[in-house]
């Protein structure tokens, strides 16, 4: 008269192992995500540095040109003083 099947035996050790595997996979994914976030932060920092360098490069060239012109002017003045009367 009892047509219902007996409930399947609960295998607690298998369930615990499955939960532990799931936790290990989750921790692995979290560690990988943290690594990728750190790499992204590093790349953003490098991008900002390159952008800043691109903005400052023309100023650097300008100051180097002014310094070179001053050196040539000083050398010319010294040459005139040396050969002058």
Provide an overview of this structure.
- This protein has 85 residues and is mainly α.
- The chain has one helix at residues 12-83.
- The radius of gyration is 37 Å and the shape is rod-shaped.
- The model has no long low-confidence stretch (mean pLDDT 89).
Low-confidence stretches: none
Overall radius of gyration: 37 Å
Enumerate how many helices there are, as a single number: 1
How does the overall form come out from the CA principal axes? Answer: rod-shaped
Query: Biggest β-sheet: count, sense, barrel?
Result: none
Q: What is the helix/strand order?
A: H
What number is the mean pLDDT? 89
Strand content: under 5%
Number of strands: 0
Quick summary:
With 85 residues, this protein is mainly α.
List keywords for this structure.
0% strand, 85% helix, mainly alpha, 85 residues, rod-shaped, 1 helix
Write the topology of this structure.
Layout: H1 12-83
